[in-house]
Amino acid sequence: MLGGIEAGGTKFVLAVGASPYEIAARHVIPTRDPATTLADAADWFERQGRLSALGIASFGPVVLDRASPRWGQITTTPKPGWSGCSLAGFFERRLQVPVGFETDVNAAALAEFGARESGENNSLAYVTVGTGIGGGLVIGGVPVHGVAHPEMGHMIPRRHPGDRVFDGVCPHHGDCLEGLASGPAITARWGMSLSELPSNHAAHEIVAFYLAQLCHTLFAMTAVPIIVLGGGVMQTDGLLGRVRQHASLLDRGYLPGSHCQRIETPKLGEDSGITGALILARNA
Amino acid sequence: MLGGIEAGGTKFVLAVGASPYEIAARHVIPTRDPATTLADAADWFERQGRLSALGIASFGPVVLDRASPRWGQITTTPKPGWSGCSLAGFFERRLQVPVGFETDVNAAALAEFGARESGENNSLAYVTVGTGIGGGLVIGGVPVHGVAHPEMGHMIPRRHPGDRVFDGVCPHHGDCLEGLASGPAITARWGMSLSELPSNHAAHEIVAFYLAQLCHTLFAMTAVPIIVLGGGVMQTDGLLGRVRQHASLLDRGYLPGSHCQRIETPKLGEDSGITGALILARNA
User: Fold this and answer.
1) Would you call B137 helix, strand, or coil by DSSP?
2) CA within 20 to 30 Å of A98's CA: A149, B30, B149, B191, which one?
3) Phi, psi of A138 (to 5 degrees)
4) Domain of residue A128, CATH code
5) B154 and B209 share a domain?
6) Is A128 within 8 Å of chain B by CB?
7) Cβ(B226)–Cβ(B262) under 8 Å?
8) What is the per-residue pLDDT for A120?
């Protein structure tokens, strides 16, 4: 039996299953201090029976380099108490199982990649647009780490002509993509969420324009065939269509193979991350 | 003996060597119509003795998918006569050797990656800034193809406050990166090359600002440890330093592992592409 954790800033999703795409039981616990949260999670897994392996899809930034003595840790997070916590180490010791460890978005990318796998596509990007904007990238079936892991939300988009005054909410960059198009950026600017704003409000076009730049840039940099857009903001009616339209306007049919490139919703709905965690367990 | 071709829009560089990093002989021919150019190249190789394999690093866009009946072709280029030409097919038939085929920048990325290879880095991007702007990406030692190949020059950068009037020279996108920071874009705007403009001219900061956005975005999207900047425009005194400075200002130390990320000149000087072609031959 495989175990999976999608470790988020507000909640931990726990699941067990015989295989990644068959979740047998799940449980959600609120994220509190690390000691309480991790102990609660371990208690739940112990009640499910003996695990063969555990996968953790974690909020970041994290250390993914298996050769590092800090592998499996969350590094510097503003979340009190969590900087330097070794999620992987805790569960290895407590549950005595092999542990796989990835960013939440790389794990979600793995799951969405697996849900579509075909001979033709060997890469996929998964981007979540919610409290923050983060992206995971699978190339040749393997999550991309580089020096650490991608942080796609912090690219610098061109400003929309109708959105030049707002400074952006990113504490590091101000008006990077996350600072302009994340949930908190939308609320800071227009006082409510994108779903709550009327469908003819300029906010829809502005947010779509920024997210389309992420897609266009990802296509241009990696020629990835599929970008999956998930997260709370993407639940907004009509937003996916607007993003596609703006991405197409930005590209003007230029990129080679662009007729084969698609922007999609998650095939796994809200289960991309937890399914990815179970894949990490299977591969651990 | 390995043979290599760096096939460019104005010249073809031909080389032979016992291994990719030991070029024994080289020859440069001007790019004319395909029949004349390819026949001249083949004649030269035949005079060098029997090749074991040939690698071609080509200008694009090209078909890299080995399973496609159009593998080894240049697709739609404004260069008269070259659209649909099968470079790989021609030399397979004429020289009766296995042929490797890549974009010029993916091949250069392979060569620069090989020139630095160490246990720590498994990815590298190579970007040329010249007549056009193009980028190649090697991840896990393998060039990234995706649906075709990256076209990094066509990302859409944020405009510099001191450069808002110029429309850009890209026939597809106007003011994409290539439309703003390539050699022709610089000449169109300021009437001479960047090297010819005084070192205190605003052009230096403006071009550096755009190229730094490419670097920052590549770091954010792929967490690549090394970006190599080559090409004629990068020969400008002081430009590399300015790009590094602007990239650092854009990131503000945020990206995880950014202290391990570097922007460098080509270790192989102007030989990145032709060396890459010989690597393609070795791997063919």
Assistant:
1) strand
2) A149
3) -110, 125
4) 3.30.420.40
5) yes
6) no
7) yes
8) 63
Domain that holds residue A168: 116-266
Q: Are A53 and A97 in contact (CB under 8 A)?
A: yes
The answer to pTM > 0.90 is yes
Q: How close does chain A come to B16, measured CA to CA in Å?
A: 31
Q: For residue A111, tell me if it sits in a domain.
A: no
Whether residue A6 lies within 8 A of chain B, CB to CB, comes out as: no
Chain A hits for B149, Cβ within 8 Å: 223, 256
Total structural domains in chain B? 2
Whether B223 and A146 lie within 8 Å, measured CB to CB:
yes
A150 touches chain B (CB under 8 A): yes
Instruction: Indicate whether B135 and B216 sit together in one domain.
Output: yes
Residues of A in Cβ contact (< 8 Å) with B218 = 221
Query: Does the residue B91 lie in any domain?
Result: yes
Residue type, B241: G
Query: What is the predicted ipTM?
Result: 0.95
Least confident piece of the model among A158-172, B5-19, B90-104, B117-131? B117-131
- Looking up tokens 């190949």, which residue turns up? B149
Phi, psi of A191 (to 5 degrees): 75, 0
Residue A160 contacts B, CB cutoff 8 Å? no
Domain co-membership, B46 together with B94: yes
